[in-house]
Specification:
Residues 389-572 form the Ionotropic glutamate receptor C-terminal domain. It is found in: Membrane. InterPro entries: ANF_lig-bd_rcpt, Glu/Gly-bd, GPCR_3, Ionotropic_Glu_rcpt, Iontro_rcpt_C, Peripla_BP_I. Its main location: membrane. The protein has 606 residues and is α/β, with parallel strands linked by helices. Helix content is 36%, strand content 17%. It has an eight-stranded mixed beta sheet with strand order 5-4-6-7-8-13-14-15, with helices on both faces. β17 and β18 form a beta hairpin. α10 (233-254) crosses α11 (286-294) and α16 (508-529) packs across α17 (540-556). The radius of gyration is 48 Å and the shape is elongated.
């Protein structure tokens, strides 16, 4: 807070513009004062919560953390890692940066599985405990959002804990690239602690102005015996911030602006402290100077200096850097113009229409921690993971799907086999335990089983569980591995394929009843016919044969019109027409007289 008080003392003098600070905490305090005094604040603090909406006189002269975290999230998504661990310094800069990262990862269907902050004055033992906790987590992708001093200390401790080996991924925010750019000589031990680490750096296009500034800076550094101190990206933004204010003042005075102040009666120190708030004055034409600053449009050492309506630089971009050996290697770029990763320079992309197709994303190969070129998987099964409780229905019927074997006490069935085979395909072990749901004397209610999963009594459920709309609103289902569709259940029976196959439609009892009914009909016809019909007379054996034959012919012989036609032809030779009564099977005769037809019915055949 001593630094912020020095800033406030400086504001006791009449100020028309403020350049800085870089610290997010101090920038928040100064923004309130600049807003009240109507003095434009040219800040290169990257804290995303600093906005011109809350502070109208705030102008950010370097990319916001929103864009930096979007670049980090794009790298995570590009390598298809879904969960990350975030380590951050517990202040406004760290907390707000991780909050921005969380939003960007969520937009890409990724998430921070574990986040841990630490104070700036954390002890070595505290940092060791922090790293041990992180090593027991599932994610092996670690985002490090701190300052240079605690960040380097964490990397050294992580290397001592073998957390810089195979399987780990370390992504540092721009604090690491700024440290490497600003220091020409870095100790070999420090470089060794960060092998394979990825970091991001605000993209500064190559230009003659940039080269001249770096040359002048190196000359001045040697002159004042600071040859090891070089320019980082922040230095270029500070340089352009000064020029932006100078150009705005030229335009301000050319447009008739004047510098005048007035006192504000609301500013007074009632505590009797060292601050003299009543000495602070309000800049009368601060709004006009602010407009001139926001209208800046020139090419500076950091690239194009131009602000949007929110007071942010247009076209923010970042370099994606891999640390390997004694140096760094740029593996690609991220630009807000396309919001994609590319190996094409951002300034070249600005000349073309934005192409936001994910198929265009590309980065160069990376040497990861452990000196391997194979992309790390990004996660492991945590050593402190709890045992998964799997609910399984203890069925009474259709035990082939799933059931409890009372003899062994194990769950068996088709669904269990599918589950165990799926687990065998995973590249890591999973500890689990089946828990039977139901008594086994009746099929359990599956909605109750699902509710136990919703209530976290079970971690998952296995079985022949139908996927319905109501259930999908509370649970996620796997792809169905049993699909019956529309089916008809029928008992399995071997079909007869020999000459007796015609007997299959009816059962034996049905055939017996059918045969008996025809025998009864034959017997009735015999009773009615044997007195008047010679065909139904004879020996008992002959009459029995006639009855059976008549019954058999009625079953298998269909009387047709041709049969009656032949009968009519035979009778016409005897001047008679013979008809056949279908109901009682009796013959009748019609005789025709030459002078007229006279019909007479007889029951006796002549």
């Amino acid at each position: 807070m001593m630094v912020s008080s020095e800033w406030l003392k400086f504001m006791e003098t009449d100020a028309i513009a403020i350049i800085g600070p870089q610290c997010s905490t101090i920038a928040h305090i100064i923004s309130y004062v600049a807003n009240e005094l109507q003095v434009p604040l040219m800040s290169f603090a990257s804290d995303a919560t600093l906005s011109s909406i809350q502070f109208p006189f705030f102008v950010r002269t370097m990319p916001s953390d929103l864009y930096e975290m979007a670049a980090v999230a794009a790298v995570v998504d590009y390598y298809q890692w879904k969960i990350v661990t975030a380590i951050y310094i517990d202040d406004d800069y760290g907390r707000n940066g991780i909050a921005a990262l969380d939003d960007e990862l969520t937009a890409r269907r990724c998430k921070i599985s574990y986040k841990v902050g630490f104070p700036s004055n954390a002890k070595r033992s505290d940092l060791l405990n922090l790293l041990v906790t992180v090593s027991n987590m599932e994610s092996r992708v670690i985002i490090l959002h701190t300052g240079a001093e605690p960040g380097l200390k964490l990397l050294a401790l992580a290397n001592g804990l073998n957390m810089m080996g195979n399987g780990y991924v370390w992504i540092a925010t721009d604090w690491l690239s700024s440290y490497l750019d600003a220091n020409s000589s870095v100790r070999a031990e420090t470089i060794n602690d960060m092998q394979g680490v990825l970091t991001v750096r605000p993209h500064i296009p190559k230009s003659k102005m940039k080269s001249n500034l770096m040359s002048k800076w190196n000359s001045l550094s040697k002159k004042y015996n600071h040859s090891d101190l070089r320019l980082s990206a922040y230095g270029f933004y500070v340089y352009d911030s000064v020029w932006a204010v100078a150009r705005a003042l030229d335009s301000f005075f050319d447009d008739g602006g004047r510098i005048s102040f007035k006192n504000d009666s609301r500013l007074r120190d009632e505590t009797g402290g060292s601050l003299h708030l009543e000495a602070m004055s309000v800049f009368d034409m601060g709004k006009k100077l602010l407009d001139k600053i926001r209208q800046a449009n020139f090419t500076g050492a950091s690239g194009q200096v131009q602000f949007n309506a929110q007071g942010e630089l247009i076209h923010p971009a970042y370099d994606i850097i891999s640390i390997i050996g004694n140096g760094v290697r740029t593996i690609g770029f991220w630009s807000n113009y396309t919001r994609l990763l590319s190996t094409v320079l951002p300034e070249d992309l600005y000349l073309k229409p934005p192409n936001t197709s994910l198929a265009n994303q590309h980065l160069y190969d990376v040497i990861w921690p452990g000196e391997t070129a194979q992309k790390p998987r990004g996660w492991v099964f945590p050593s402190n993971a709890k045992e998964l409780i799997i609910g399984v229905p203890n069925r009474f019927s259709f035990k082939e799907f799933v059931t409890l074997d009372n003899a062994t006490g194990k769950m068996t069935g088709y669904c269990i086999d599918v589950f165990t085979q799926a687990l065998s395909l995973l590249p890591y072990p999973v500890t689990y335990r089946f828990r039977a749901f139901g008594t086994g004397t009746a099929n359990p209610h599956y909605d109750q089983l699902i509710q136990k999963v919703v209530d976290n009594e079970f971690d998952a459920a296995i079985g022949d569980i139908a996927i319905t709309m109501n259930r999908t609103q509370t649970l996620d289902f796997t792809q169905p591995f049993i699909e019956s569709g529309l089916v008809i259940l029928a008992p399995v029976k071997k079909h007869i394929t020999n000459s007796w196959a015609f007997l299959q439609p009816f059962t034996l009892g049905m055939w017996c009843v059918t045969g008996l009914s025809f025998l009864v009909v034959g017997a009735v016809i015999w009773v009615l016919e044997h007195r008047i019909n010679d065909d139904f007379r004879g020996s008992p054996r002959q009459q029995l044969i006639t009855i059976v034959w008549f019954s058999f012919s009625t079953l298998f012989f269909a009387h047709s019109e041709k049969h009656y036609e032949r009968l009519r032809t035979w009778c016409s030779d005897h001047m008679a027409i013979c008809c056949f009564d279908h109901s009682i099977q009796l013959y009748r005769k019609s005789y025709f007289h030459p002078n007229g037809a006279t019909t007479r019915y007889f029951y006796k055949r002549t």
